Amino acid sequence: MMFPEVRMRRLRQSSRMRDLTTETRLHADEFVLPLFFDENIDKVKTTESMPGVKTYPLSGYKEIASGLQKNGINSVLVFGIPKHKDAQGSGAYAEDGVVQKAIRGLKENSDLLVIADLCLCEYTDHGHCGLLDGCGYVDNDTTLELYGKTAVSQAEAGADIIAPSGMMDGQIAAIRIALDDAGFEKVPIMAYSAKFYSAYYGPFRDVACSAPGKGDRAGYQMPCGNRKEAIREIDMDVAEGADMIMVKPAGPYLDIIRDAANTFDLPLVAYQVSGEYSMIKAAAQNGWINEQRVMMESLLAIKRAGADIIITYFAEEAAKVLREKNGRN
Ligand code: PBG
Ligand code: ZN
């Protein structure tokens, strides 16, 4: 018998052959673009540590509504930067809060699917995701009450999905009960279930002005090395009524994404976070990597690991690449 009998390269010899045998494909329908709205500005603003990411004034929903869907992006995750911060994060659940206004604007001017990030850290003057007790500890159970109120105010504003990101214990059950009591039993919860205590959130905190003043988030976000604990966290969110589950960050946690995909049947979301985005942008700006190829490879890896939905700051750029590829003949 002649060697080699099996030639793996037979299926790699042309782009047609490679397209036919591709195992993992990306589609713009599965992308979610994070959007930032800031009450303190009246013109679009950019932040140095997140090149290409815009912070919009409240009036920005007009520009967004016309631009995004034309580019094939149908889902957004909304964050707000309020004028006023206080110890209770009261801007998070104010009827006329920045996120509530942004949601209303987007819903009235587009048919985007609007996902509301639910947390207090952009709204508290101390920058933590929940209420502090007298000793600087983030108190779980009093925070849950405010998460419930926030969820209801976001649903009242028209949010299609509520996405709690604060990593308090019992937050999914508390939010589910609050939503149901207010008549929002049809509003799904996208649970940030396995959210790690990650250094990759740095650039986001520059944009969202949400870095904690004192202390850090290690007391509520997950330790980076814990794989079994991620499954327990997700399991609990499912038991509490989550409709979708999430692993965050994405690229450095592909093993967790794969574990979750193997273990749970719910739609699995992965959040490619700010640091993942900015590292690619920075290397590309230096000419050290091919930005487009690394961007697509990073997203493909997340999908291949098992994610069904990808939250990414690259959503528009990646959708454009996919469109151009499909237009090619
Ligand atoms: C708020 C929140 C954070 C992110 C999403 N929601 C920041 C944090 O936990 O400090 C991070 C997103 C990113 O880095 O892109 N809790
Ligand atoms: Zn938070």
- CATH-assigned fold name: TIM Barrel
Integer average pLDDT = 96
What is the CATH superfamily label?
Answer: Aldolase class I
User: N- to C-terminal separation?
Assistant: 40 Å
Number of strands: 12
Instruction: Characterize the largest beta sheet: strand count, sense, and whether it forms a barrel.
Output: 10 strands, mixed
Low-pLDDT runs: none
Category by helix and strand content: alpha/beta
Spell out the helices and strands N to C. HEEEHEHEEEHEHEHHEHEHHEH
Helix content: 25-40%
Explain what this protein looks like in three dimensions.
By secondary structure, this protein is an alpha/beta fold. The chain has one domain (27-328): Alpha-Beta Barrel (TIM Barrel). The protein has helices spanning 15-20, 61-68, 98-109, 140-157, 171-181, 202-208, 228-240, 254-263, 274-285, 291-305, 315-327, and strands at 31-38, 45-46, 54-56, 75-81, 113-118, 131-132, 138-139, 161-164, 190-195, 244-248, 268-272, 309-312. Strands 1, 2, 3, 4, 5, 8, 9, 10, 11 and 12 form a 10-stranded mixed sheet that branches. The protein has a two-stranded antiparallel sheet with strand order 6-7. It is globular, with a radius of gyration of 20 Å. The two termini are 40 Å apart. The model has no long low-confidence stretch (mean pLDDT 96). The structure holds ligand PBG and zinc ion (ZN). Zinc ion binds at residues 119, 121, 129, 165-166.
Short description:
The protein is of the alpha/beta class. The protein has helices at residues 15-20, 61-68, 98-109, 140-157, 171-181, 202-208, 228-240, 254-263, 274-285, 291-305, 315-327, and strands at 31-38, 45-46, 54-56, 75-81, 113-118, 131-132, 138-139, 161-164, 190-195, 244-248, 268-272, 309-312. The model has no long low-confidence stretch (mean pLDDT 96).
